[in-house]
Amino acid sequence: NECDVSFSIALHDVDTKSTVDALIINLISGMLLPSAFVWITSRPAAANLIPSKYIDRMVEIQGFGDQQKEEYFRKRVGQEDQLDRIISHIKAARSLQIMCRIPVFCWISVTVLQPWLTQESEKEIPTTLTEMYSHFLLVQTNTKNEKFDDRQENDGKKLLECNRKMILKLAELAFNQLVMGNVTFCEEDLEKCGIDVTEATVNSGLCTEILKMESKFYQRKFYCFVHLSFQEFFAALYVFYCYLCKNMDRLKILLPKTSAKVSGNISLEEIMKCVVDQALESKNGRLDLFLCFLHGILLESSQRLLQGILPHIQSNSESIKKIIQNLKRGQKKHINPERWINLSHCLIEMKDNSIQQEIQSYLKSKTKSKRLSLAHCSAMANMFQASEKVMDELDLKKYNTSEEGRRRLIPAVRNCRKAISISLPPFNSFSGCKLTNLSCKDIASALESSLRNLDLSYNGLQDDGVKHLTVGLKSKRCKLQVLRLTSCMVTGESCRYLANALKENSTLRELDLSCNDLQDKGMKKICSVLKSSHSNLEVLRQVSQRLGCHVHIELNTPCEKAVETDLKDKSSSLSSKSITYNKTKPLIASALVIIHFCFLCYCFDVLIRQCFSKILFLAKT
Questions:
Q1: What is the pLDDT of residue 521?
Q2: What SS3 state is found at 533?
Q3: What's the rounded Cα separation, in Å, for the pair 501 and 446?
Q4: What is the spatial distance between Cα 210 and Cα 137, in angstroms, rounded to a whole number?
Q5: Model pTM greater than 0.85?
Q6: Which pLDDT score, from 0 to 100, does residue 263 have?
Q7: Which keywords label this protein (predicted)?
Q8: What is the pLDDT of residue 315?
Q9: Which three-class secondary structure state does DSSP give residue 211?
Q10: CB 345 within 8 A of CB 95
């Protein structure tokens, strides 16, 4: 449950004895050691239980880099030739390479691959996550047999048959807790699935590797899987097992009410479509890996590895084709692009690399005239995002695709320095505005990256869109320096959001708000930020839609400001009038606001009289 400070005893003395949970809550809330910096490492699902008001900064731990992966493998693998083969195999399988950022997956990889590489034949060496975890289950089950039962079994089917009951109990536990969103569970949860805790964790050996005791509150033991991926793998195994056994009652929670009524006759394609829809609608992606494993288990090659657990092997090529087509077809509206990317991973688990090959051909072609489907865009975003090389620029206008296709490409922003045309053409319809606002939510999440330059000009973002963007701008991980919002249909209300964001994030150096109806109140809010010592804004551009007045403000320091103004008469080819504020004297923000108001009136007079080409104002403080 969510961390609730009101139900905890307030602790102010470090010498006071208390329970672990009370100490943690008091540390988080700042009642205990208020000046201390507390860094809590946790899974995303558990981290979401901490109220946001107590969080100053969110840090995403990326895991192993390439060098750390190699160092880990070198420590675990003694022979140089085996080390090279393991690294080469992992690099060749994209999904394995990505997962090896997680230290526990490096452990799984070595455990599984090392025995295989001692054999002469590598025809059946695992290439997907599902195959890797299935092999790991076989290895751990065999280790349990040798250690506790003093027997060795080389037949994988017989090996799993001997441990079938315990594995299915673990699978049921994993599924029950996953659908409830739990990553930790108590003894009662294990007992409901028929698992004897002592026997499972001490005698079986299998659970010792799969489960671990997480913590101890009030003499109650809590358990979790060694890694969340084990829970997701077992949950997927349980779903497919129930389908093969026609035990649809256990799967009703995954089906909509209309399908649940006829669940006895529901096809595999329909079940998979329902699970995909649920995973797409998940806000934090907690079902992503579960979905990948579930698609991977559908393959006959994966089922053969698990045939000691499954009642039979189901091979239906037509059904597999339909499921793959459903993954490629995805048309559901208002879904986070990150969820669509996960469907690309599902295709890899089903060993369908057609989209990847088509993208490679597209990128190699000189014309790039082929129209990209939505699935192409999601897969391309995944490719760019996962690339070890940071892109210099991402220009969505280069890609021939639909408006939704460009939105699917947005996650690639995380791995580039400059993004231009990250949005769709201006929209006049209500539905278009909704789509644009949704795009801003996606872009906001991508701002927590190495992105330095973002151009969203000429798009109907409106105030709601800017509001979503500022959530990302406020992030401590945002490194954005240039933001252009020319002609984005925003008003003075957006200036309030931007002003608040600029006060919290000092990285932004240039802001372009040209051709937006900000009015005096809006500009006043933006200028108020210049008073803040935290703001490092150096350039502020604003072209008035009504007067044709272009105000270009350059701020060399928080106190020194130079304002260059170009006046362009829309009815003639006249000229350029420039106004520069004296940079030798400090100019406070309030004076700038007053000058701005006066200047707008004066500009109008200048445009009418057209009597001079350049004026120099000396601002007085």
A1: 84
A2: coil
A3: 16
A4: 9
A5: no
A6: 57
A7: ATP-binding, Cytoplasm, Leucine-rich repeat, Membrane, Nucleotide-binding, Repeat, Transmembrane, Transmembrane helix
A8: 84
A9: strand
A10: yes
- Give all strands (DSSP E) within 545-621, no chain letters: 549-555, 561-567
| DSSP SS3 for 22 | helix
Tell me how far apart the alpha carbons of residues 393 and 132 are, in angstroms, rounded to a whole number.
Answer: 36
At residue 342, the pLDDT reads: 92
Q: Which residues of 372-382 are buried (b: 16+ CB within 10 A; e: fewer)?
A: bbbbbbbbbbb
User: What is the pLDDT, as a whole number, of residue 221?
Assistant: 77
Distance, in Å, from the CA atom of 210 to the CA atom of 207, rounded to the nearest integer, reads 5
Taking 50 as the pLDDT cut, the residues of the chain under it are 422-435, 546-552, 554-621
Half-sphere exposure of 35 (CA within 13 A, CB side): 1
Q: Where are the alpha helices (DSSP H) in 163-210?
A: 164-179, 187-192, 197-198, 206-210
Sequence-separated (6 or more) residues with CB below 8 Å from residue 54: 3, 28, 29, 30
Angle, CA of 49, 52 and 57, to the nearest 5° = 110
Antiparallel, parallel or unpaired: β 391-395 and 185-186:
unpaired
Amino acid at 105: F
Q: Are 481 and 508 in contact (CB under 8 A)?
A: yes
Dist CA 160 CA 138 (whole Å)? 7
Cβ neighbour number for residue 227 with a 10 Å cutoff: 18
Using the 8-state DSSP alphabet, how is residue 53 labeled?
Answer: G
Q: Kindly tell me the number of DSSP H helices and DSSP E strands found in the chain.
A: 27, 11
| Residue among 538, 489, 475 nearest 511 (CA) | 538
* Residue 578 identity: S
How far is residue 620 CA from its own chain's centroid? 49
How far apart CA 242 and CA 232 sit, in angstroms, is 15
- Name the region of 228 (left: φ>0; alpha: ψ -120 to 50; beta: rest): alpha
The closest of 342, 303, 287, 297 to 130, measured between CA atoms, is: 297
Is the alpha carbon torsion for 294, 182, 46, 200 positive or negative? negative
Distance, CA of 288 to CA of 504 (rounded, Å): 33
Q: Considering only CA atoms, which of 163, 171, 123, 157 is closest in space to residue 305?
A: 157
| Local structure of residue 146 (DSSP, 8 states) | I
Distance CA 26, CA 31 (A): 5
Question: By the 8 A CB rule, do 621 and 586 touch?
Answer: yes
Cα(555)–Cα(16) distance, rounded to whole angstroms? 52
Strands 510-512 and 539-543 come out as parallel
